[in-house]
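User: Can you help me understand a structure? I only have the sequence.
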Amino acid sequence: MNGVGKSRIGMIDVARGVALLAMAVYHFTWDLEFFGYIEPGTTAVGGWKLFARTIASSFLFLVGVSLVLAHGRGTRWRPFLSRLAMVAAAAAAISLVTWFAVPGGFIFFGILHQIALASLIGLAFLRLPWLLTMLAAVLVIAAPHYLRASFFDSPWLWWVGLSSVDPPSNDYVPVFPWTGAVLAGIAVARLTEGLGLLAALGLVTPGRTAAPLVFIGRHSLAFYLVHQPVLIGAIWLFAQVFPPQVTPARASFVDACIATCEESRDGDFCPRYCGCVLDRLQGENRLDEVFAGSQDAETVARLNEIAGICTFETDTMTPAPDE
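Assistant: Let's start by predicting it. Here is the structure, written out as tokens:
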């Protein structure tokens, strides 16, 4: 039973189902980019980047809400540990599979790793005042803006989220700032429970049209594990009949680099900067390693150095907008 006297709240399942479908839409687009059907870097910038962060935040927020519903009036250790073990095992499986499939961007601390650890951390906040928990959430979310340091650049500490540069990974959801979303969910659930709003929400029965969302929401882990193999398999089969147009590796790198660069810079800077990075990678025979996604810690460190050098050189040669 949860804090509002029902085994489940249907509308929470609906919200979780919507978040899962949104995640599938994003991953489908990412897969199209991976196979070469859309421009490189599309899902890493602009609206797609915001979309991905919104999905992850909402999903983790609902994890916090669910913790309150399930354990807010006392931790039910058997179901909690059973669920934790399933999530942790799934996270380990994803790490193992991606280590062999994409060693340069394998998922060492993705959304499932975050859910497992944040669920444990969240237990400590379940019976604290909601305002204190919300303050902790704000501090956790803000931490990467103020506490990044080279001390955390060791691969063994990347899961913390405070390294000077984010490491390569196809799904990187570290403790800071993402645990803040779980804590925010706990705080809001505690507040709304105290106001009687959760009890009222529990009286709302989703309509028949929402049944698929309820089903997905109630089987979220299974959906998460299955959806990507299905999507990748479908696109792979499509590619056997209608292969994507092959873009030269050099042009592909420059396009992706410019798309990412233009998130923070404009004018003539990005083409010159990306050309500088490309030339240095080619000069050091690192381009194939970058394309293959097989960067080790030394290569990541060198890429950061090259980025710094090229930023300085490009800023020096690029005229100011009013010149």
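Now, to help you interpret it: The radius of gyration is 22 Å. Confidence is low (pLDDT under 50) at residues 1-6. Let me know which part you'd like to focus on.
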